Amino acid sequence: MVTHSYVGSLACGCGCAMVIDDPVHAKDTASDVSDMISRGLTVQRFVQAEAVVAFSAHCENYPHEDWQKRHEAARLKRAAMLEGA
Hints:
The chain is of the alpha+beta class. The chain has a domain at about 5-60. The chain contains three helices and three strands, in the order E-E-H-E-H-H. A three-stranded antiparallel sheet has the order 2-1-3, sandwiched between helices. Strand 1 and strand 2 form a beta hairpin.
């Protein structure tokens, strides 16, 4: 049973990457965590419920990165489509 995840955050605290800590896929998990570190993210290990909160965290300037702006635009579009359904 998976109980923990690693969350990568920007310096401002915005959660932007998450990988499940699954012992069955330890090499993949290590590779993903290494990628987060190489991208300059702060990586922390949390129990699953706390990981979801940390991954969803946004600073007061969100969205401020180009990829965040694209993500937020796509999220708003999906939300508008669901409201119209």
